Amino acid sequence: MNIVVCLKQVPDTNEVKIDPKTGTLIREGVPSIINPDDKNALEEALVIREKEGGKVTVISMGPPQAEVALREALAMGADEAILISDRAFAGADTCATAYALSGALKELDYDVIFAGRQAIDGDTAQVGPEIAEFLQIPQVTYVEEVNVEGGKLKVKKAWEDGYETVTVGTPVLLTAIKELNKPRYMHMKNIFKIFKQDVKVWHADDIDVDKSLLGLSGSPTRVRRSATKEAKGQGEIVNKPYKEAVTYALSKLKEKHLI
């Protein structure tokens, strides 16, 4: 079974800061990581390959530095890595990103495409489903369990109040959540090999796309600014019997016109 995993290199959100003057992210000096949900997607692809055979290819759209994330994926056990990188992709929103990735995916032979549910630097959960739409293939999102049965996939899809079991054929796109598995660490023997292994780099001219639909010009949405949440004020601890404490709390809420 041939599986392609879409990965994104993202800034570690524990280290992200926002410029108070411009409202934009300060990326300088911020470490980058593989998006967590994408690691779950990669782990599941590797598990399926180990059981069913086949090949796992990882693909990412980003600047040249995104090659680091792809090499980490190779060290985890992926067979092949492809980076699509071009100035034409700059400023892409989720729609333009999905369009570019779908153009690259059309060049590959796949049965299953895995992606993370969402990226921690955007939290839109849109790219995976949009890729499926551009490729006109079925999709199952919020996947927390996958089993291969008779050439089809039996997938457990999470809902807020339960789950749904879906049986689907291939080709199909699945988006992974953290409950799906626990990603493995990089393997020592692979770490030494990855520096000799090529990461293919594809440019806009190498994929099946309309360049007018790429990057900023092909993005129907714009981010005007980013902002941090206001810090919470100092709390107050009330040491009173519970009835008096409730009365006191209600009086404070009334003072602030919250009730």
TrEMBL record:
Its cofactor is AMP. Residues 22-211 form the Electron transfer flavoprotein alpha/beta-subunit N-terminal domain. This is Electron transfer flavoprotein small subunit. The lineage of its organism: Bacteria, Bacillati, Bacillota, Clostridia, Eubacteriales. Belongs to the ETF beta-subunit/FixA family. PANTHER family: ELECTRON TRANSFER FLAVOPROTEIN BETA-SUBUNIT (PTHR21294), PROTEIN FIXA (PTHR21294:SF17). It comes from Clostridium aromativorans. PROSITE patterns: ETF_BETA. Pfam families: ETF. Coiled coil: none annotated.
